[in-house]
Amino acid sequence: MYIGIDVGTSTVKAAAFDSDGRELAVEARPVALALHGGHVEQDMEEVYAAVVGVLDALTARIAEPVELAGLTGQGDGVWLVDAAGRPVRPAASWMDGRAHELLDQWLADGTFETVFRRTGSAMFPGCPGPLLAWFDRYEPAALDAAATALYCKDMVFRRLTGAPATTDVSDASMPFLDPRTRTYDNRVVELLGLTHRRGLLAPIGDPIATAEAREGLPPGTRLANGPYDLPSCALGAGVTAPGDGLLIVGTCLASLVATTDLDLKGEPAGLYISTDRPGHWLRAMPAMVGTAALDWVLTTTGVGHEEVDALLAETPPGANGVRVLPYFAPSGERAPFVEPRLRAELTGVCLESTKADLVRATCEGIGFAARHCLQAAGLTGSLAVCGGGTRSPAWMRLLADVLGRPLRVVEGEVGARGAVLAAAERFGAALDAAAWTEPTAVVEPDAARAAYYANLYEDHLARLAQARDRTRA
User: Which CATH class is domain 287-409+443-472?
Assistant: First the structure.
């Protein structure tokens, strides 16, 4: 048995696989997000307890010995811990918006662009640079009490194993890592006013560094602290060849394209995620909101998730003129552009508009945002898709039409699967990656609908440009 652990933003999961990559069982626990005044935080003890809980439940269900385990989880944010790995304060989530004024300042004075040109990272309010600078200015006692500013999976790994506090090159990619040297860029640290806090940055561990679990898994289980959830999903979906891409239709709408070309001259947006293979990156455009936008619309209209497919069938492409710009995050948008104050817009609604129109317009808007991100990331090859959105066949057909290309649908716990594959490579275990990442379906676009959506996409871009202009006014 092989176990993958995925510490998500709202759900912690552990999945068991056999040696051929078949998913044997999954255990999941919800974890809470505390939202107040633009601050989005998580209780680290609750998150860690959920990890131990899902592992205890999973290993109790399956009697097979555990060959190895891999760990992944949400990226960005700031998870401050003391020398023993214990929380100093609640974690600031990647969804946090408290640092938007600092980011506005850096956008205006050129710091934002300078950092991108050096690291390939377009900062957003919920990434460690702005958050650490905010804490340094407004809550310095928390930084004084901390030994390390970790990322989510690193906090869990530290607690599960007792290993020294480290991170990997994928999590370190935003925003301090020089992607060429794979070390922290001290000039970037200086530009963000954090030189005196340099010691808080987690040491970047050797990609093959592993440890033995102390709880939640059988004693002595080999556990690898793998890449964070975006690159883990790319591994789990088989996206490793340059030009191939992955769309994650989850809480975050993430577009990733594998590349060996490091181009820091384009529009500052997204980031280059370093991988375990030097000279190989993922060009990432992780838009802030994916399924969370649809969740908000469903909750507001009193519609259940099980009704989505039927509602999509009730209204035609174009949603009878209803349009949604799906920028619902409190911290604005970060890909394929950065606008901390951008907000969602719903237009074209009249008394004749239906819930089905609102749902379809939201799904279409998310699709247009994905198309924008994938184009900016340089997609030229095949496209895989994973995440909670794949559970809706109607939405997958709509996405194929909006994107105008076939979708390799990879279902199940793709991030956990990728964490296992990363662990297997680090431990030298022989697993057939092609078999592990075989798509469950391929959804082809309808030519007529794809042509219709190509025109509607241009309208989406025009409306987005107007909204960005209003944001800056």
Answer: alpha beta
